[in-house]
Amino acid sequence: MKKLKTVFLFLALVCAGNSTLAQTKEETVKYIQNILSLSNGNGDKSNLLVLDQKFNLDLVVTKTRVNEVVGGINQDIDETVSVFEMPLSEAFILEEISISGGLVQFGISFHNKAKAKEVKKTFYHHFNKNYENDEEFTDIFNLYVVSGKVENFKKAFTHLIELLKKEDPFGN
User: Fold this and answer.
1) How far apart are CA 145 and CA 50, in angstroms?
2) What is the pLDDT of residues 18-39, one digit of tens each?
3) Residue 90 DSSP symbol
């Protein structure tokens, strides 16, 4: 009877461990989205402010606002919307920079830069005139994380990349 209890206890622990440690792609994406959403509305309002971030397997969108304050007056308001489409299995964290307002900026790049398709639209407001630039294409995008969730983000992002690579182990 003691051996039977030991076997059941062992099986219960194995099942419980697998369910909490091995998250699916979808659960990991949702977890990353939850971490990123904590940054929305945060930042240094006189400098960089994160307005919105959306993260899923098909699309990453960041919307930020940068103010330049001169003599207590906003001189420039640069609002950037970045839309990124790229196989995330190619991604890696290129840089991690602490910025004002309790945020950390993660620069995400790709091993195969030829596939990168970030489209940035920037809207400028300068001395009461509005400008919009053309789309530009780059091979890096930024995500913003509150400083208390930096390690959680790095672990989740790395875990997601590993899951995506396992899905296509030969890189095709």
Assistant:
1) 10
2) 444 568 999 999 999 999 999 9
3) G
- Residue 159: per-residue pLDDT: 95
Take residue 150 and report the two structure tokens written for it: 């930096």
Band of pLDDT at residue 70, cut at 50, 70 and 90: low
Quick check: helix, strand or coil at residue 139?
Answer: coil
* Average confidence (pLDDT) over 5-15: 58
Among residues 118, 111, 145, the alpha carbon closest in space to that of 32 is found at 145
CA-wise closest residue to 42 among 34, 50, 33: 50
pLDDT reported for residue 18? 46
Q: Cβ(88)–Cβ(126) under 8 Å?
A: no
Dihedral of alpha carbons 68, 73, 76, 81, sign = positive
Q: What is the C-alpha to C-alpha distance for residues 45 and 143, in angstroms, rounded to an integer?
A: 17
The Cβ of residue 104 has, within 10 Å, a number of other Cβ atoms equal to 19
- The residue written with tokens 């990991």 in the block is 28
